From TrEMBL:
Protein name: Cephalosporin-C deacetylase
Organism of this sequence: Jiangella alba
Catalytic site positions: S187, D273, H302
Organism placement in taxonomy: Bacteria, Bacillati, Actinomycetota, Actinomycetes, Jiangellales
Extent of Low complexity compositional bias: 125-135
Residue span, Acetyl xylan esterase domain: 1-319
A GO molecular-function descriptor: carboxylic ester hydrolase activity
Record InterPro entries: AB_hydrolase_fold, AXE1_dom, CE7
Residues bound to substrate: Y92
Amino acid sequence: MPLFDKPLSELRDYRPERDEQPDFDEFWSRTLDEAAQFPLDAQFTPYDAALSLVDVYDVRFSGWGGHRIAGWLILPAGATEPLPTVVHYIGYGGGRGFPHDWLSSPVAGFATFVMDTRGQGSNGTPGDTPDPVGGKNAQTPGFMTRGVMDPDDYYYRRVFTDAVRAVDAALTHPLVDASRVVIAGGSQGGGIATAVAGLRTGLAGAMFDVPFLTGYRRATEIVETLPYYEIARYLSIHRDHEEQVFRTLSYFDGMNFAARATSPALYSVALMDTTCPPSTVFASYNHYAGPKEIRVWPYNKHEGGQTFQTREQLRWLRDIAKNS
């Protein structure tokens, strides 16, 4: 796969104008206030994962609309003092999987909180959280156009709200150090983490690995790959919905959240990535308001740096934990 997007020298300076609605902050303040009407009621139930070096808890907490969201809390075995914590969000279609899928940060000494993604978990890794709410408009298969005609009804309004409340749920556990919470995710998980970084203060750091859900219009114009292609496919049928679709998506664009985020961040990008194009990642990175670093993988597609990026993240996390 040859390079198809802007050259790296241009990507480093690529900072497109953001499409942001005047009531963006009010919309999200209202959304989170509505969610706050429901008690978190975070519950941690011991779980037999057959792993001797970690303690595992099955998690349930109330997300958007009071809907119960599943997750895992994985702790270094026998921990007695509050720990630096990583809250993980999951890639498109995947679910929370099993505790043994999430061992890199616990063995590095971090508490690890994994949030299941509502309605997903039937692609790659299993999930346990339904989405009781459906969009009111017709949609293409997938999640990108579910409720896309109305920001209040859009699928990711619920997911992003769940994700903010996942941090709150993690903080209710006595072994989570509130001053050292880092959020993390790859692809869709990276897009979810970007939203949380822009919506919630008090984070010690954020890690966005080849993030999705940013620069929607450009992505639909330069690649014909899923999941962004779900939007283009919808608009190829609903030709008269373009203006409203992109207006809705502007409330969920990673660039707008990045411009509000202030915690230290570690990004990654792959220059041959036709799923999350490099220019969309750099658009988020270059708008990010806090201290930031980016790791560039020139010859990779959406797999990005994989285990090499994990090594970068573990080293970065070690420094964040020391400095927080």
